[in-house]
Specification:
The complex is a heterodimer of chains A (391) and B (337). Among the domains of chain A are: 112 residues, HypD, alpha/beta domain 1 (Rossmann fold, 3-Layer(aba) Sandwich), CATH 3.40.50; 155 residues, HypD, alpha/beta domain 2 (Rossmann fold), CATH 3.40.50. In chain A, helix 3 runs parallel beside helix 16 and helix 8 packs across helix 13. The C terminus of chain A is likely disordered. Chain A contains 16 helices and eleven strands. Chain A has 391 residues and is of the alpha/beta class. Chain B has two domains: 145 residues, PurM-like, N-terminal domain (60s Ribosomal Protein L30, Chain: A, 2-Layer Sandwich), CATH 3.30.1330.10; 165 residues, Alpha-Beta Complex (Phosphoribosyl-aminoimidazole Synthetase, Chain A, domain 2). In chain B, 28% of the residues lie in helices and 25% in strands. Chain B has eight helices and 14 strands. In chain B, strand 1 and strand 2 form a beta hairpin. In chain B, helix 2 packs parallel to helix 3. The longest helix of chain B is centred in the first third of the chain and has 17 residues. Chains A and B meet through helix 1, helix 2, helix 3 and helix 6 of A and helix 1, strand 1, helix 6, helix 7 and strand 13 of B. The structure holds iron/sulfur cluster.
């Protein structure tokens, strides 16, 4: 770990960052709108304060690349319904815990006694199913091509173990088909493609975006230098009006991706329709289970249409880059990470959460609600009059 | 928005905790003497003598983790609440809430750690209480509450009203170890390269600072992490804070795991780290005194109180950018990818 970290620090070199920022600022003469598909890019950009180094000509908008955020409200309600059934043990990634459903969040359900376990790896669900045979263990699988391989491995292993008390809520999504659909209607000037998805599917999988839709695209990693290299690629493509896919993350991403991960996905899933928040049902932007693995899949049909979506939340526009979080009247007022009204405020990759934790420097920070405006009182003087005045 | 049910976030030390205090406890206890902004209450008893008095409850799952356990945590946590008020910790009382099914071996181990931690700090455990309750969740639990009393030795009080613009902020060592140690033990992470909790008594490190009049304020950085403590300080004083990310000591192990897990080290809890606000003139003397102690050997000057009247915390990032540091919000959950 030590060595790995040391090797990463060079991707945070202030000198290199400044050089790259200068080059980008020089190349970006007119206003351009770049979509950073992935929430991790949004976080990295804001957390390192990159905006303070780049020209105002360059605006970075969010894209549909946060797994929690693109999950449909009906699916979220379905998950909560499952968690509410006594015999069920719900196994989930931490990101989902605070997402609001129609009847509260999983965190609230857990505090009322629901059996919900947070794991780092889906494989852990199998350990739970083996150790507690009387429980019905349900893995909630959300995520993109990055998460799909390990979920595939979990399913294959469950099959080998002949588990009967394990099932899956399969909400994994395929990013590239969704992007094609989205950009057929409206397109940004350039696209910063997520390095981790490309690690799995390979550079070539993204080639359709510039080829069919003419959008300059660059695959980038998540360290400041990686991101800036991607942005510089885009700035050059825009300058020369030559749309292609470039790989600014070659230390990890190859032409064809990771063959083992791809074949696991191939053996386990087939493309299937999927519900996306803000986009509706997209024909091939999800996964279905193949053959014998189908027995692990739970079928949502009965509940999908059930409950109303969360009326005033603008997440469906935020994830398409059409609205900034600040444009939402609830942002930072009654919508905060502790009391999120939409999924974008919850996830480690959510755009609203990224803007909440890492605000613009000049943003006025309003206090969430009047009750918490009560400030802590300063203590009464405790020693004999020695206290200097505060101001 | 009023709180309906208590959730884990209400105990995380962030703004949910503040909300809980503000809605339930402050309105009722403030008028009868509560000093909510201090880690320990300061009680002048005449003849220039001031007592420091505090209480803290500890539950941790699992109770044993690399570097420490529930026992030493409950003793050192309370010692630290006294020590950061410039006091010498003297006496502790402890209360146990033990759920049915806890093994006596485990309880003995925890009591032994308490005994050792108290002895190491020359503190006596002079009173105690035990209660046994039905077991609720799946694992039987032990909760320990410790209360402590000490005598203030610092020649000037270490508290918020003395903080002023230009004060230098000194962090006593690396951050993040404690949360990762507990999370690691809970989820069986980092088995090849375990991260040990930093749990320790801060008293020996702070003693040499007692005679320095220009130490204005000291706080131990526990729940809510450095980001939490800095935001509380900004709000309590009304001044802004400027930080240099580069100067914040973080071990490469913690840094690397935070990247993987999606944690911001600024919000991780610590159990043996202090943040100090000192007059600019005394900063280098304070740093060199800290540097002579075992716990303070990585002490670093990380920023200062600015004269900005906006009570916000600004971080100059290590790559040369600038951003705000918000107060922590809610419980930490590891992310998906
Ligand atoms: S601020 Fe909250 S309510 Fe508004 S779009 Fe974001 S998550 Fe939805």
């Amino acid at each position: 770990m030590n060595n790995h970290w040391q090797s990463l620090t060079s991707y945070r070199s202030p000198e290199l960052v400044q050089q790259l920022a200068d080059a980008i600022n020089n190349a970006c003469q007119g206003r351009v709108k770049i979509m950073q598909v992935c929430g991790t890019h949004t976080w990295s950009y804001r957390r390192h304060g990159l905006a303070t180094l780049l020209t105002q000509n360059l605006s970075l908008v969010a894209g549909p690349g946060c797994p929690v955020c693109v999950t449909d409200q009906g699916d979220l309600d379905w998950i909560m319904d499952l968690a509410g059934e006594k015999q069920n043990t719900l196994v989930t990634f931490g990101d989902l815990m605070r997402v609001p459903g129609s009847n509260g969040s999983l965190a609230e359900m857990q505090s009322r006694g629901a059996d919900i376990r947070v794991v780092l790896s889906p494989l852990k669900a199998l350990d739970i199913a083996l150790a507690e045979p009387s429980r019905r263990v349900i893995l909630v699988a959300i995520g993109f091509e990055t998460t799909a391989p390990v979920v595939a491995a979990t399913l294959q292993h469950a099959h080998r173990l002949c588990l009967t008390n394990f099932s899956i809520v399969l909400l994994l999504k395929r990013l590239i088909p969704a992007l094609r659909y989205l950009f057929a209607r409206e397109r940004p000037d350039g696209l910063l493609c997520p390095g981790h998805v490309a690690t799995v599917v390979g550079k070539q999988a993204f080639a359709c975006l510039p080829q069919e839709l003419g959008i300059p695209s660059a695959i980038a990693g998540f360290e400041p230098v990686d991101m800036l290299l991607g942005l510089l690629d885009l700035a050059h493509q825009l300058k020369t009006a030559n749309a292609k896919i470039t790989n600014a993350y070659p230390r990890v991403v190859t032409e064809q991706g990771n063959p083992i991960a791809r074949s696991l996905i191939e053996a386990t899933f087939e493309p299937a329709p999927s519900q996306w928040r803000g986009l509706g049902e997209l024909p091939t932007a999800g996964y279905g289970l193949r053959g014998a693995l189908q027995r692990f899949g739970l079928n949502p049909a009965a509940v999908l249409l059930s409950k109303a979506a969360n009326g005033q939340c603008l997440c469906h526009l935020v994830i398409l880059g059409k609205h900034t979080p600040q444009a939402c009247p609830r942002f930072r007022k009654n919508c905060t990470p502790e009391n999120p009204l939409g999924p974008c405020m919850v996830s480690e990759e959510g755009t609203c959460a990224a803007h909440y934790y890492y605000p613009d420097l000049d943003e006025s920070l309003e206090i969430p609600d009047t009750e918490s405006e009560v400030t802590l009182q300063l203590p009464p003087p405790v020693t004999d009059g020695k206290l200097p005045n505060k101001k | 928005m009023s709180i309906e049910f208590i959730q884990l976030a209400h105990g995380s030390g962030g703004s949910a905790t503040t909300k809980l205090l503000e809605q339930i406890f402050l309105p009722r206890f403030r008028d009868i003497g509560l000093q909510p902004e201090n880690d320990a209450a300061l009680l002048p008893i005449g003849n220039g003598v001031t007592l420091a008095f505090t209480i803290d409850g500890f539950v941790v799952e699992p109770p044993f983790f690399p570097g420490s356990d529930l026992g030493s945590l409950s003793v050192n946590g309370t010692i630290n609440d006294l020590a950061v008020m410039g006091a010498r910790p003297l006496y502790l009382a402890c209360g146990f809430v033990i759920s049915v099914g806890v093994s006596s071996t485990m309880l003995s181990q925890i009591a032994t750690s308490m005994q050792e931690a108290a002895a190491a700090s020359n503190v006596q455990i002079v009173a105690g209480d035990t209660k046994v309750v039905e077991s609720r969740g799946t694992t039987p639990q032990i909760q320990v509450t410790t209360s402590g009393i000490g005598i203030v030795e610092a020649i000037e009080p270490w508290h918020t009203p003395r903080v002023r613009p230009g004060d230098q902020l000194i962090l006593s060592g690396t951050i993040g170890e404690h949360t990762l140690a507990v999370m690691g033990a809970r989820h069986s992470w980092f088995q090849h390269d375990p991260i040990a909790s930093d749990c320790a008594s801060l008293y020996p490190m702070l003693v040499p600072l007692h005679p320095i009049p220009d130490i204005h304020w000291v706080r131990d950085i526990t729940r809510g992490g450095l980001g939490g403590v800095l935001n509380e300080l900004a709000h309590a004083t009304g001044y802004g804070i400027e930080l240099d990310e580069e100067k914040i000591p973080i071990s490469s192990l913690v840094r690397g795991w935070c990247e993987i897990l999606g944690y911001d080290p600024l919000y991780l809890a610590n159990e043996g780290k202090a943040l100090l606000a000192v007059d600019r003139a005394a900063a280098s003397h304070t740093l060199s005194e800290l540097g002579k102690t075992v716990l303070g050997r990585h002490a670093s000057l990380i920023g200062e109180i600015s004269s900005d009247e906006q009570p916000v915390v600004i971080l100059n990032t290590s790559i040369g950018g600038r951003r705000l540091v918000m107060a922590p919000a809610g419980e930490l959950f590891p992310r998906i990818c």
